[in-house]
Structures
1.
Amino acid sequence: MTDGVHIMGEAGRPRASNGRQRDGAERAGIQSVDRALTLLETIAELGGETTLSKLAERTGLNISTCHHLLATLVQRGFVTKAVARRGYALGARILYLSHVCLQVDLPRRAQPVLDRINQATGETVQLAALQGDELVNILKREARHAVRVGAGTIGTADAAHATATGKSMLAWLPEDEMRRIVMAHGMTRFTPNTITDFAALNEALRIVRRDGCAIDREEFRPGVICVGAAIRDQSGAVVGSISASAPTMRANDEHLAHMRDEVVAAARALSVELGAPPSASERAKAAPV
């Protein structure tokens, strides 16, 4: 038999082609993975941060085993050392995986929402996400009018600073991360209205946070106005954004307000579905009189 092909040994146990039994090593490997996942789940159950001794007590593992497994999890970013309390906390890698998982599921969740906006406004509707430093268009619905804004192709776009989808997401990022994403692609001037100064962009994003949506007034394409709103998860992190675009000939104040209301409501509904906390206005409405 050639290398890597398994043959059956005594008692029907799988053996490697070199004759050594593999089942013991495989069991040990699976046990290590199981224990590492148990540690992650236990840290989460204990509020996201705990001590080594409490982890050992809660899981039934000895201190040495916990310490070795945690060292690997720390090295990979799934756990971090909580210096103040000499314990361990869930690491940023957990958030990264959660974020990616939500993005994978986002098109399925968003499809009926995009259909409703498309039907209500008749305009081009798009779903976008930030994947690393890239603004990625992942779902679109073409306008129902004869004169319409083309949704373009699905894929990356280097225009986060000039589009409603991009600005609505950038507005909710930490400033250093927002700066890194913008500077990674530069602030290309697409039209005379494109913002190409970082300080001016920062001020525009402050207004996006205040208003709850971003508006692209011919900043990316001449003759096109677009409104976008961010989708956020339970931690407040940006998962994606929804936008609707219309030609300026149709985007009067009434129609633009209608587009804005539909997009903001849809983004908010998806955010709530993903566990986002209620907004200040929603909390105010729910408060007893």
Note: The first strand starts at residue 7 and ends at 8.
2.
Amino acid sequence: MANQVNYFELLNKRRFDSNTSIIPDKIYFTIEDGVNDPAIIGTAGNFVSITGLPKARKSTIIGAMIASFLIAKPVYTFSLKIHKDKTKIAIFDTEQGEYDFKRNITAIEKITGYTTKEVFTFLDAFLLREDDPHNILMLINEYLKHNPETGIVVIDGLLDLIDNMNDEGASKRLIRTIKRWAKKHDILIITVLHLGKKDNSSIGHIGSASDRYAQSTLTVEKTKEGTTTISGKYLRSARDFEQIEIMWNNDFKKYTQIKP
């Protein structure tokens, strides 16, 4: 016989008491755009969605975020925080092959000045391109069980964690799983999701569910001039921030930020 839920006990666990002192959020992700206080993008127990059309350089932006975590200072105004008990970052890449992923690691090395060995001291990376949605979920869950020192988990991309992006029930269950992971393990999860080509909206029911429940949704766009912009689409906890724009610098052989 399945375990029965005691809903009276569960109800009391869910009760909010206004006299209870609230522990401040563990802030993992801010944007330091020089306007008053930093814009709070992601905190412990939440997830952030990075959206954009295919080939919009979303992985380049993710690399910059990882670099910021490794050097503990802003990169293109992104600032990902290390906390004393959360000193590692992990990425689960479901799209790229080894060659393209290695190029992104090389870009991180250029930004940070670290060697490959130094990068992987603080970064755990997994390539799951060949795995099906069920196995990807199980592998991420297994990682989280055994790596309590990890503070930020990047899932690039979210569509590969579900068989049918237009299955409303499955989409909601996936988002609930991500929210449960974030709360249980006291982490921030950053997901990467494609936009639809026709209307630039988050794709499928999974996109709608992500937009609804993400703490922040950021959009990455490639401009006609060849630059890349990052802006806030939905911000639950943050003020609006100045649009970020980067471009490839041939002199330095890396992307640099265009100052407003």
Note: The longest helix spans residues 168-184.
3.
Amino acid sequence: MIRHFWAGLAAVLLLASPAAAQTPLFSDNSELDIVIEAPFTTIVRTARRSTDPHPGALILNGQGEPQRYNLLVSARGRTRRQTDRCVFPPLRIDFENNELRSTLFRGQNRLKLTTHCRPSANYAQLYILEYTAYRLYNEITPMSFRARPLRVTYRDTEGRRREETQFGFFVEDEDDLARRNQRVALEIETGVANATQLDPEAATRFALFQFMIGNVDWDMVASASGRDCCHNSRLLAASETARSGLIPAPYDFDSSGFVDAPYAAPPENLRMRNVRERYYRGYCRHNGQVPAAIALFQSRRAAINAVIAAETRLSEQRRQTAQRYIDSFFDVIGDPERVQRQLIDRCR
């Protein structure tokens, strides 16, 4: 009986560990070759006003025999879906009613797919950079969304759009992110949480990362729409009712200076010349945590540089530009006077 008790306890602890909670899809960073079949003529034409799901399919190549999954496919997002800046919307795919237990997609249900904005090599580079930004934050903390790179062929089942193959990536579901870190992802409205309830170290780490990639298109405790919290981030908590020690996890980096998309523009109230100009938006109440956060980033500099160097999908010019931009961040945090002027004195 004692032996069975300890064996059962070991199994429970294994299942509770972050490694055990990791889903197969996000267990490595190799590129997947997939085909998505859906009525893309309708999805693209109605994306501005509709996120209705449409029946489709995903075909996974390169894993032995091609594997086919029936899906629901819908447009998602706000800015890229509702403006004229992009000709193809981000997508959400829903695996409902598939048997996934012994497949690469085990544990998946609804997934965000970051797609191309426009079908050009220059735009493809932007989303490779955005994918790289996810990888950079993975090097800082496990409290970060993972992403899986894709080579996606879009096949229009209505037969009116030409088949095209583009770079894209899946973003880890927020509940999977929470589970592998033994947390829950809060579903709350703006105003329920505030800065005093954030974990100071995690919030400072979050703000310093956003400063590193030159991103101000986020909020840790509020939403730009005034509805669900939070803008381009999710809060992780010890339980569904916990309202302290909240850990923000960021996503959506296409408006950052690191990506430098043609459509990205800084908010007028920050008086920034362009998105390449960094602006620190960490909270003043967390200034005491800034030195430790800086030390953490400095300790991970080699790993951050290695991620950029290994991203061979980037052109040499883009890779060098990305590296110089990150180097300029380390120049700032390595200079106490600039830390005071550009971080501490600009806190909110």
Note: The two ends are 58 Å apart (CA to CA).
